[in-house]
Amino acid sequence: MSHTSHSTILDEKLDPLYQEIIHRNPGETEFHQAVREVFESLGPVLVKYPEFMENKIIDRLCEPERQIIFRVPWQDDKGQVHINRGFRVQFNSALGPYKGGLRFHPSVYLGVIKFLSFEQIFKNALTGMPIGGAKGGSDFDPKGRSDDEVMRFCQSFMTELYRSLGEYTDVPAGDIGVGTREIGYLFGQYKRITNRYESGVLTGKGLGWGGAKARTEATGYGAVFFLKEMLAVRKIPIEGKTCIVSGSGNVAIYAIEKLQELGAKVVACSDSDGFVHDPAGINLDQLKQLKEVERRRMSDYRFNKGGRYVQNGNIWDIPCEIALPSATQNEINGRDAATLVRNGCIAVAEGANMPTTPEGIRNFQQGGIAYGPGKAANAGGVATSALEMQQNASRDSWTFEFTEARLEEIMKGIHESCYETAEEFGTPGNYVNGANIAGFIRVARAMSAMGLV
């Protein structure tokens, strides 16, 4: 999607800066989209706090503090040599050490990592935790690779990246293609190279070696907690609602689990090859076995009566009341959003990062549905990562119940902050503005306090 097809006019003070960002970061369309989405919310902030424009806080906020790009050579099981590219964009550390996931997927290039790390700044600020924004990854595809191949890749990747990490410097976690297995290999190599058992340097670790209970569940659970708060404001129960969750990774699986616990019915989920529609309700145990244990495709899912698998189909054509896009960026376009609204969807909470195009977001907002953007709705993952860092720092480990209760509390706080900020700045019910403005003000104040750095 090009940056020219937006209908929202940017504030006149921000438009020249936006043009300059496009010029300085050519070809990075996802990054342009993420910056524009934040800029579209900031007009009223500049009226109230003109100093953020005068001291060039916004200009500085859009330029990463550090961008690391490196070669990752590795050998497959047949002895063939492969070369991938590794990235880490350390975008902003005004609130704390850099924090954000690693994504291993063929679509990864600098523009994707920059958009993700830019989003992460505001998401992390919203959690209220002391963490800055970063993201990293590689165009390596773990799909279909053996454990040994994944291990060799992870070791090569960490051999370069370790110099830039540390529990007070930069703390990566997982994202698409990076689960507990990959975090384990990365941590092992970091430990070996540095000769330090620095638990707090990576989050999403296994439970037996410094991981936090509920971290695996956190992003999906958190998105549902946020959804629940959005519906509560509208006095609508979640129970009995028909839901669609796209994706079938970590976020999707645990969003489905929490929705089912709360009495909702999830009828569809997907992977990159197609979707499963099971009107009787997705069988969660089977889904976990398929994806977490056997690492197989959705086409192998076995139905109850009346279910179907559609290859390369569009999951958003299925009618639902609640949608949780939890796969990848820009998976819902304008047409999909219009279809969802037409089919009676009342709420969308984003489990993925920027899964809706600008046109899709407009259609949701004009359709009057409760729309929770990713930087607010999926912040539960990084919030629980920060809780994992706390446990590592205090050499402690908390119960699942305690961690989940903290997570729910944080998500309620994020919802409240977005909701109240949206009202304060004259756009009640607009969670996009609420999230962007609340996150921005927190980071901007910290940056102002620290001087020109």
Features:
alpha/beta; Rossmann fold; seven-stranded mixed sheet; five-stranded mixed sheet; 12 strands; disordered N terminus
What does this protein look like?
With 453 residues, the chain is of the alpha/beta class. Among the domains are: 66-198, 3-Layer(aba) Sandwich (Rossmann fold); 217-372, 3-Layer(aba) Sandwich (Rossmann fold). Helix content is 46%, strand content 15%. It has helices at 15-24, 29-48, 51-54, 57-61, 110-127, 147-161, 180-194, 215-233, 250-261, 284-293, 334-342, 358-366, 374-377, 380-393, 400-424, 431-449; strands at 66-75, 81-92, 98-104, 132-138, 170-174, 242-245, 265-271, 274-277, 308-311, 322-324, 347-349, 370-372. The strands form two sheets. Strands 9-8-7-6-10-11-12 form a seven-stranded mixed beta sheet, sandwiched between helices. Helix 11 (334-342) links the parallel strand 10 and strand 11. Helix 8 packs across helix 9 (250-261). It is globular. The two termini are 34 Å apart.
Radius of gyration, in Å, reads: 21 Å
> Could you describe the largest sheet, including whether it forms a barrel?
7 strands, mixed
Q: How many angstroms does the end-to-end distance come to?
A: 34 Å
Q: List low-confidence stretches.
A: 1-5
Find the count of extended strands (DSSP E, 2+ residues): 12
Order of adjacent strands in the largest pleated sheet: 9-8-7-6-10-11-12
SSE string: HHHHEEEHEHEHHEHEEHEEHEHEHHHH
CATH architecture level-2 label of the domain at 217-372: 3-Layer(aba) Sandwich
The CATH superfamily of the domain at 217-372 is known as: NAD(P)-binding Rossmann-like Domain
What value does the average pLDDT take?
96
Looking at the structure, the CATH topology of the domain at 217-372 is: Rossmann fold
Determine the structural class based on helices, strands and strand pairing: alpha/beta
Please state the overall shape, judged from the principal axes of the Cα atoms. Answer: globular
Number of helices: 16
For the record, the CATH class of the domain at 217-372 is Alpha Beta
Strand content: 15-25%
Name the helicity range.
40-55%
